[in-house]
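S1.2 Input.
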Amino acid sequence: MKLVFFGLGKMGLPMAAHLVRAGHSLVGVEPDAQRRERAAREDVQAVATFAEAIGLVAGNEPIACSSLPDDAALLAVARALRAGTRPVSTWIDTSTVSLEASAAAAALCTEAHIEYLRAPVSGNAVMAVNAQLTVLASGPQAAYARCEALFACWGPKRLYLGTAEQARTMKLVLNLMIAVTSGMLAEALALGQRGGLSWNDLWDGIVESALGAPIVKAKALALRARDYTPTFTVQQMRKDLGLILGAGEQLGVALPLAALVQKAMVAAAEQGDVELDYAAVIRVAERAAGLL
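S1.3 Output.
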């Protein structure tokens, strides 16, 4: 397939690289020069603008893909696609964005006769490198069927969820559960330490119990060593919790646990941990308990 890929960051670059290795013809769009250099080292051709990229893609009506940081970037790409001198047939966006921005992007795609697939991915940058992401997709079902070979490049699991914003909602649902899990761990670990349990014994008990879910076991590998090297930062989780709380307000659903964890993420940022892994909310609870 002929592809234009917007956004070659921590998630986008490995995803684009997997598409290239699968034999697809791809040109990346990345305004950051250092990221374009990194892309070249992964054999991903990258240019600064969509106009340059579309001129380099042979064939009619290529597919656009994107991995973007926020609502503003999503809408900027939507506007660029609508105004493009050459049309794209389909746009696959893998970003975590608000329901409102996604719906606005859908309206711009309708005006431009572009099929719009919302395809946010569940997983982190390491999983992106290892092609272990889960694709959550919604949009035109025929377009989804045509693009399944692309999704397979990113991971073995994918879910088709409906024709509109269902995939965006599912991504927020999953990230809500991840965020609340981090808040639960923070309080549990602080309570256990104040009660005389050692850090390692606490992790042994958690991991070996019925509470040892895959995400908890995965985080335990680093957290046993108090390693907060980020797979997903405090700042990124603050952003996603903002989207989650916004969706709750839009849909009329109270989310008190999400609001509490958001306060903990804000505290982590204010205490200097904004670029650490989001599990640094554990340090917030430890400080409050006089453990740090």
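S1.4 Remarks. The beta strands are 2-6, 25-29, 46-47, 63-66, 90-93, 115-118, 121-122, 134-137, 157-160.
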